[in-house]
Amino acid sequence: MISVTMDMVQYDCPYIDVTDDVDVSFHTMHWDFNTAQQELETRILVTGNDRGALTNGLNALQNHEGTLGFELLSRREDTAVIKSFIGQTNAMRTIRKHDGYITGPFRISDGSELWSVGFDTADNTDNALADLEIGNDFRVESRNATSFEDYLDVIQHLGATKSVLDGCRELSEIERRTLQKAVDGGYFRTPRDATLGTLAEAFDVSKTAASKNLRRAEGKILRRVVAALSDIDEENDLNRE
Question: Which domain holds residue 161?
């Protein structure tokens, strides 16, 4: 399998249009493509910079001409979960034409989205990427070939993988951004290249707030990692029997 991660800009995608105009981001939780109706049904976590931004983003998506259906499932402060329907975009059609498939959740913000897609052969990958250049702007962030052994390892440890993914999805927007800034900035290196002071300055908050956001993010991720380690041990024991 060829795994490709790309930063994609589609000009016919309602989600991208909304994030280009409003300070909201979308994180897909579940999707299902109806081949008969050529519709994509998606359950999405929506996060706004504040409550007003979330309201504006939800209204913009619901009223977008490319939105075929919209349902608000839950909402709390600046975060909501929705179910929505859109038609098949040019990029979606191209991926499917070349037997591609989704391998991870979409993350959409600031007018672009991060795609994780897979192809069975290098030829399919090359042809899809060539066709995507027609009508889309994108940048390939990574391209990796996954061996049968690696693929089997993933399949055998789906429970552990899901546990870690669930931990990532539990992060609030500020927790995710703080953790990412800490990692990218070298907070966890020895010696440290970043401090609580630099994190606080980056997000215009106090050191105490930066520390709380970072600790909450670490706690959510590490709890899931520890649970995943136990799942891996159990699955390995079963495979040896």
Answer: 151-240
